[in-house]
Amino acid sequence: MNYLFSFLVFINCVSFLFFAIDKFLALKQQRRISERTLLFLTFFGGSIGSVLSMFVFHHKISKPSFWWKVLVIIVVQIIVIYLIYNCLKINPEQ
Question: Which residues lie closer than 8 Å to 61 by C-beta, 6 or more apart?
């Protein structure tokens, strides 16, 4: 369980950083990080870092299509967590 927690902290920090870098690149009108990369990081555990960075840097806030994709990812993550802990009866203390 410690490895999972460490991974989630790491991926959320990376996700937060990538969103921040993308915002900086957008302001400088330089080549940006692709939405696919940002959504990939969000999907694989970086949803907290992604959403936090979106609000902190006001980045991608005005794009409803991006918000919907992030929302779908978060809903899928919640369903997966529910299934793991309730349907498979996995003990979180292990």
Answer: 54, 55, 67
Torsion sign, CA atoms 37, 63, 72, 9: positive
CB-facing half-sphere around the CA of 92: CA atoms within 13 A = 6
The torsion angles phi and psi of 33, rounded to 5 degrees, stand at: -80, 135
Pair 28, 68: CB distance under 8 Å: no
Per-residue pLDDT tens digits for 43-82: 999 999 999 999 999 888 888 899 999 999 999 999 998 8
Q: Is the dihedral of CA 86, 94, 44, 46 positive or negative?
A: positive
